[in-house]
Description:
This protein is of the alpha/beta class. It is 33% helix and 17% strand.
Amino acid sequence: MNVVSMPRLSSTALPAPYLLFLGDVTEPSFAKTAFGLAEWAPEMCIGECSLGDTGVSVGLPQMTPAEAAQAGARSLLIGVANPGGVIPESWRHTLIEAVKAGLDIVSGLHVRLASVPGLAEAATAHGRQLVDIRVPPANIPVGTGRKRSGQRLLTVGTDCALGKKYTALALHRAFVERGIDASFRATGQTGIMIAGDGIPMDAVVSDFEAGAAELLSPDAAPAHWDVIEGQGSLFNPSYAAVSLGLLHGSQPDVFVVCHDPTRHMIIGVDGFALPPIEEVIDLTIRLGRLTNPSIRCAGVSLNTSRLEEGEANELIASESRRLGLPVADPIRGGAEFERLVDNCLA
């Protein structure tokens, strides 16, 4: 059995194509890793595997591990990002079944695969790899706040799991299509799986969060843009710490606020309402000025995936008028998204 840690600054090739494992989650937001890979790296995904009729699907053929192996899959990739990054007992049988079928296991969860009872023994017996993605690099420095060359954009959010990664990927793609020298900087397990490298910010010891963000987006040519995937939310009582460290270390010139207009409460905790977009803009600027006094908001990214097209377009237009900023859904694209890109680069 080979246990592989894949820290940042290593572009170790993952054993693709994948069977995306959705476990038994019933909340689509907790399957964001699977959705992200199916959307941004479909050529790497063969099928999906769920434990029962959960109502959550990324639209790929439902397969058992044995069927996926026969179809050419090389690994079962855990497509779940659940609170705490845990592997529940209900998953163990399927993970061991996948190893016995000839698949490696790839995980971006906090829990190390080798710690799952019976999995390491099965992997050893069948010669399979257990690949952990959520491993930060060694010897991360503490943040210095030193102003770095180049341009930086950070996506921030009213909450977790509502489009920060998708927005960063879409903006990066738009920059490149315009001939701009730009890099997508991944800060979570899904982004790292898509990009091939990055730093899992929520696995970094808090004293080194800002330093990790500085390491992630180093000095660059004056015209180069780093488009940095945001994490958490300054308003989330569980994950605000990683958001603040990432903001200070990224020292963004520009940020884009990401919001799901159909969500009203912070996901995963009780009693906390989503903040107004204006509050997110205000707090991000006030805190971000510590390391970049020139920080500004370029606009808002709305996740309108649960709205009909007409309703989405009306909301985008009304929010743009209300806020006095470009507002767009990057997945829908269109003229509104082009205006958002224009303002990011202004």
